[in-house]
Amino acid sequence: MSAEPGTVRPGGRTARVRAAVLRAAGDVLAEQGFAHLDLADVARRAEVGKTTVYRRWGSVTGLVADLLAEMAEESLPRTETGGVLGDLRANARLVRGTLADPRQGALFRAVIAAATGDGRTAEALRRFYEVRVAEWAPCVEQGVARGELPVGTDASEVVRAVSAPLYYTLLTTGVAPGVAAADRAAEAAVAAARAGVFVVRA
């Protein structure tokens, strides 16, 4: 069975072509939104053959899925400070920094908007966040092991609780949250976790 377009990781010249095309696709998303993402335009911007782009990715949604996979792979690894609050504050500041970045923030808004009406984009976005949540969940698990949080705390839910208010602020106001808001989100999530809010009940 052949792989879906855009899911095979290439090497050499093919890797350079992929990098150029994904960079161009990200630029279009950030500048103009999902509705204006066109494979021929992306090929022109990336200075590669249109046929190459159509053959490799097949569709706009295939290209967006590969872009999100690339972003997940290249995201910074988690920070370990020795305490769950410090770790999750670092996570919140990383999310906040991404959303405040002119290119990345616009890109995420475009992809989130597209995901509301396109199933494959929505699935790619879910996979992206699964990777990021899994990367940071050990910080919570270590907090449980150190006795900072109750046994049975759902690590993934705590990580999501850190990010959720930051995305909500961006989507409802159009303005990226500040550092103070990021710290507050981490503190609120940790306070709730310490109170047992995220303990999985039998």
Structural description of this entry:
The chain is mostly helical and 202 residues long. The protein folds into two domains: 12-71, Arc Repressor Mutant, subunit A, CATH 1.10.10.60; 78-194, Orthogonal Bundle (Tetracycline Repressor, domain 2), CATH 1.10.357. Helix content is 72%, strand content 0%. It is built from nine helices and no strands. The protein has helices spanning 12-32, 39-46, 50-57, 60-74, 84-100, 102-115, 119-145, 155-173, 179-194. Helix 1 (12-32) packs across helix 2 (39-46) and helix 7 (119-145) packs across helix 8. The longest helix is centred in the middle third of the chain and has 27 residues, at 119-145. The protein is elongated and about 55 Å long.
